[in-house]
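Repro case for the chain-ordering regression, as requested:
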Amino acid sequence: MKELEEKIVQAGSLEALEKVRVELFGKKGVLAAEFAKMKDIPGPEKKAFAEGLNQTKAALQESFDARYEALKAEEIENLLKAEAIDVSLYGNRAEKGALHPVMETMDKIIDYFVALNFAVESGPMVEDDFHNFEALNLPKYHPARDMQDTFYFGDGSLLRTHTSPVQIRTMMQTKPPIRMIAPGSVFRRDYDLTHTPMFHQVEGLVVDEKGKISFANLKAILTDFLRYMFGDVEVRFRPSFFPFTEPSAEVDISCIFCEGEGCRVCSHTGWLEVLGCGIVDPNVFKAVGYEDVSGYAFGLGVERFAMLMHKIPDLRSLFEGDIRLLEQFR
Amino acid sequence: MIVTRSWLSEFIDLSDVSNDTLYKTFNAIGLEVDSIKEITIPGKVVIGKIVSCEKHPDADKLNVCKIDVGTGTRQIVCGAANVVNAEYVAVATIGAVLPGDFVIKHAKLRGVESEGMVCSSTELGLPAMGDGIMILDESIGILEVGKEFGEYSTVADTIFELELTANRGDCLSIYGVARDLSVALDRELKVFEYRQEEKMKLGIAREAEIHQEGEIDADLYYKLANLEHLHSSFLIDLRLAMIDESTEGKLDAMLKYAMHTTGIALRTYQSSLFRKDDKVTVFVRSSEKGIVEVVGNGKVLSTVGVNQDDTAKATDTSEQILIEASYIHPDVMVEAVWSAETSYATDDLYYYTSRGSNPDLAFGLSYLSMLLDTYFEFSCYEGALRVEASREKEAIAVDTKEISSIIGMEIDKSKIVSILQRLEFVINSVDETVVSATIPCFRHDIKNVQDVAEEIVRIIGINHIEAKPLVFTEANRLNTTSDRYRVKKAFKNRAVGCGFYENVSYVFTQKSVLEKYGFPTVEEKLELSNPIAEELNTLRTTILTNLLQAVKRNVSYSKKSIPLFEIGTVFDPQRQEKEVLSFVVSGHSESESVQNAGKPKSIDFAAFVDKISAIIGKFELVPCSRSNGLLHPYQSADILVDGKVCGYLSKLHPTVQEHYDIPVTFIAELELDPLLPKHINAEGISRFQGVYKDLSVVIDKTISYYEVAKVIRGLDLPMLKDVYPVDIYEDEKLGEKKSLTIRFFIQSMEDTLKEGDIEKVMESVMSALAEAFNAQIR
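-- result from build under test --
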């Protein structure tokens, strides 16, 4: 019995164990031979013999099952081991491109306003004087219309200098109430460290009945918007001037680089200017033929947002398709 | 606009106002602070009085001075030539630490002991004030020998650079800024009063007269004066340096200082130019509204508020001068200047007048007289020659309820009235809700109720307005443009998933490059008239040349796999805008990794097509129908979506590849519109098993798969669910023929396929191909 047990434990592989199984439990195996002896055993002892034999069989079966489980587990383990790889070889070279940080920032801005039930509107890049300037209360002799800043074409049309003409087009095509944003490329004839001849803006306009829309509303939405974009920042409104809004304000956030302590980026003021906004000037409504309405408008530069949010140091690098910059946004 | 704390203090008491409060107040009232500079003069720099000054025995350019510095007389060697003219100077005594950690010690200069240094402005951190040391005078305060120089608040001043918005001409002067501050800080503005000593009893009328022609819509005051001795003033020179103003002589310095202080447009003339029959005769005329010319002896010497003949200006050597103070309404003048047929040259003064100079001419003249009296030996004829436009004062009636609704906060009528009064509006009447007021003449920018609302916002402070979310009627505002953004974003995300980087480039490009590669260009008459640079002198008609430029740049940055895409606008020759998607892959088709043992394959046609199809979905390729210089004639294709050509893809022509000096490159450009997703109706799905069947046919080499597929599709066999090529074989034995293997998937909607079904399909395919292309089974 001990010897048989030993055989089971000693079996080194599933094949060896199978041999042992045949030897023990097979039709011609040891146990079968033992059971065969039963018929020669006299009646009174038969019962005891049978009981003893059954116990032996059960004990052997138990050892066998345990050994079988152990060998099976070992076999699977070996199989798995054989498939081992160094996972760290992979992964960091995974194929994936990246969205442009300016476009991704623009999408994030659009997402916010679409979620607040704003329509997205668009308009042509090649504009005329009326939509780009005149209707926006920028008369012919306004300094902002300096030939230096605007790209003109031979036929007198121009490249839009802001996304505001989309406001004019939308107002002329639809009736109030209006709740829209206009994202897009705009153009100024300027090229240096902080200016590129093309950049992106998002413009917003809300128009409703006279008396319904106030400066307080503008404060509410823009404060919330800036916190959505920049996190937990302080928002400051400063009175300013734009020809197409009155009252107007510029909006600053507390500097995200120094948290208001004062640093090079914020010119040691602790604040970063990010937005312009205001209550729509009555002359703009007059130009599009609206009466008895009120509205607010705002505009922002997407490159500035992207550069601040991602701490991108060089504006011009954004237009060079430089993969060394882009791959950081994978 | 640059202001300084001590300069402002001439008009408003700021003794209890900190610089931080000033900074916050300026920003709060819309005078944005660009920068603040607090000047600190180092300690141990004191007022010294020069007792004697002699040439250095061994050095031509040095002087040996004995200077009383309060605690005794020191011998100091000085290198500045102008020290010989000086009486009072700033002396850095032993132990003083000047900017740049420059410590003043005992020194020996060419054998002569020196116990300190006579300072120039820049050595103390003040702005540059010409060559040499500072020659002090009592313009900065009473000079006490030995007193710390930094104790003079006029010197240790704080400089605020304000960024004025275009509407605030009224703040283009120290006085104007002080006036706005006085409202914000709610304190009195000091009244400037100057009573000129009567040095000359002679009235101006004896010596000068004025004539006018046409309706003059400008105010003009002229004074006549004789100049004898001109002195300079340290404080005036220092402040002009602080505001970075350059001057031409002492008279010009006084004039500019007076203008910066008061905001009144001032000019001087040599009176001799007006002299006619022994009398100074000023002739002013206006031929069109807004243009007023000042004429002397038939010659136009200036246009009011616009320019002045340089030779007419009085200089330091002029004996008799005519001083002009003018005011012209900026709107009237600027419009006239802009719409004039002949273009007017404009000078520095135009910056003031076009934004609105101060109309209080008497103030300007008396301030200037005060300066000239103080620093020059000067005598002025009594009275002034005057022309005054008949101009009505503008009045406005505002509904205070409307102001509250614009701001979004209830503001008391009494509060509005009080703010307007502080802003120098004259209240004419107040009824239940409406306030009528006369607008102060220096506020040209105020025209309607919203302008008044802005004033109220400025003074109560935006920070005191409580934010209120707008209640707005909900509506479906997901229009086609919103939808287009969503679709574009989906394309972008798929491109990124395929390894592409998004590029953003200018819509400009170089015309000669487009022409070189045979792309259309914008018609000459519709072309940009003022491009910013030669390389950006036209609108792009393709994005591909911009992408190739980006590829070239990345190659120079040692990038080996360069997959870029851009979704953007291109223009046609008529300048119509169209959105396109452009792709380029240059170099390796994937990045180097363990999988490819660091040797990835170059991009090839199949790999490129794979990437594009993963982005834009279903399409077919047919041999390319167009030609431009970028296309490879034998590896280029039109891209068909729903049977219509919507773009092309190609291997980059080897010559262009060489020109850009880049590795093997593939390009594609597609119009966006045909790719926009269409509505899809689902078809039924068969419950029965289908069968794949291959067919190899021998056909002419010149026949494209697209033509074969078209014939098969034309059969319109309902059981033929899918057809696609799986192999192509050519060898010598086949000669001008090729063997094409096509795989078919056959399935019935109604039943399990029966024996005959498959054969029937294959036979009709084969006979159609035999008929169309003389195809044979291989």
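Ordering looks correct now. The longest strand of chain A covers residues 198-209.
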